[in-house]
Every structure is written in structure tokens, then in C-alpha cells.
Amino acid sequence: DAGITQSPRYKITETGRQVTLMCHQTWSHSYMFWYRQDLGHGLRLIYYSAAADITDKGEVPDGYVVSRSKTENFPLTLESATRSQTSVYFCASRFNRGREQFFGPGTRLTVL
Amino acid sequence: GQQLNQSPQSMFIQEGEDVSMNCTSSSIFNTWLWYKQDPGEGPVLLIALYKAGELTSNGRLTAQFGITRKDSFLNISASIPSDVGIYFCAGQLRYSGGGADGLTFGKGTHLIIQP
Q: Is B12 on the interface with A (CB under 8 A)?
């Protein structure tokens, strides 16, 4: 019973590089979300997906790209990483008609 | 976006004490969720509230959905060392079933327990 997993757990990269963070859930949840967590800002929504091939922007989408070709996976790509994208990234999911979101363990990303 | 004011920002308490924290907003919410986050981990759902006035318990934790639908409270009784962490409230403005659920998060309450 893996639930929701994220990989890698830690990543260090350089400015300008492309980085992809992976999220995988085994619950067959329709909705998946990406958040970033920063001191002083709490959790902020980057992108979300209501189903495979359906994605939409959240509060802070600039500099990020998402895709959802399969229900269970929701990768987040930083096409050209910047220092301001240093953060902890959390993936979450929920049932179509549920209200509770369930979070993964997070990926700590450092952009040098 | 919508703002959730969560207080206090941090709490330093003695083991065995009771803890209270709350979230308030100028907006009306249909759902309140309370999460706990341990260092290096993701938030874990503690309690979900769906109706104004609802009072729900989970072990030593009790949460209430405010009557005005603009606030929620979380209480922890007889705190123990493993209660240390960051507690987040999250509110949902509208449940459509067909779109983003519009969860808004508070900035968290850091709970520190002194033995």
C-alpha cells in the first residue's frame, strides 16, 4: 500500500537546468496537485489536474510545466530552474468527489 | 487569493498541557481540514469538518467548524512529545465536485513541547 510517492526526495541542480519531479499515486484518485512550501508563504498551489490529460494553473504556475498522460502519475517540470524555485515541493491527490487532499512526502529542491 | 489567518504562529508548552489554535477568515468556507506536518515529511490529515457547528474528535485532538463558517479551532489535550510539529488549517471555499477544490492553507502553528 504505497499511497502517494514522490521522487527524488532531494535534488540539487544549477540555474538554467531542466528538472522533473515525479509524483505517483496508487489510489486511482482523479485529482492531483502540486504545491510548493516556503517559509512565510505556507503551501501554495502550482498546478492541478482533474484527470488524465486535464491540467490547470494554480496560484504560482510561472516557470513550471505539468503533464498527466496516466491517472497515477503527475510529473512537474522546471524547464529552466531559477534560484527562486528553491523550495520543498509536495504532491497531493484526492478522490473526484472527496474534499480531503492526501500529501506525498515531498521533494526538497535546491537551485544553485 | 483568499487569506487564512492562523494563530498562534508558534507555541512553547510543557508536556501535559492542553493546546489551542485557530484559523479565521473573512470568507465563508464549506470545509475545514486540519493537517500535521513532521520535519522532513508531508502534511498528514488529522481531522475533516464539513458542517457549521460540527465538533469532531480524533483521539486527543478535537476540532470545531465555527458557526459563522469563517473559522475553525483545533485543541490538543494532554500534549505529549510526539505532538511536536507544524499544524496547518485548510479551508475549502466551494465544493463543486467538478473543479479545483480551492483549498486555502494557513501558514501553520509550530508546536514545541518542553519536557
A: no
Q: Which residue of B has its CA nearest to A48?
A: B100
C-beta separation of A10 from A107 below 8 A: yes
Taken as a whole, chain A contains a residue count of 112
Residues of A engaging B, defined by a Cβ cutoff of 8 Å:
31, 40-45, 48, 50, 56, 58-59, 90, 92, 94, 96-97, 99-106
Residue from B84, B35, B42, B76 nearest B59 by CA: B76
Res. B27 pLDDT band, cuts 50 70 90 = confident
A-chain residues near B58 (CB < 8 A): none
User: How confident is the model over A27-71, as pLDDT tens digits?
Assistant: 999 999 999 999 878 899 999 999 999 999 988 999 999 999 999
Q: How does DSSP assign A33-48, residue by residue?
A: EEEEEETTTEEEEEEE
The per-residue b/e assignment along A46-75, b for 16 or more CB within 10 angstroms, e otherwise, is bbbbbebeebeebebbeebebbbeebbebb
The residue written with cell numbers 512529545 in the block is B81
- List residues bridging with B13 in a β-sheet: B113
Quick one: closest CA in B to A106, which residue?
A: B42
A26, A50, B2, B14, B115 from A102: Cα distances, Å: 12, 15, 21, 30, 31
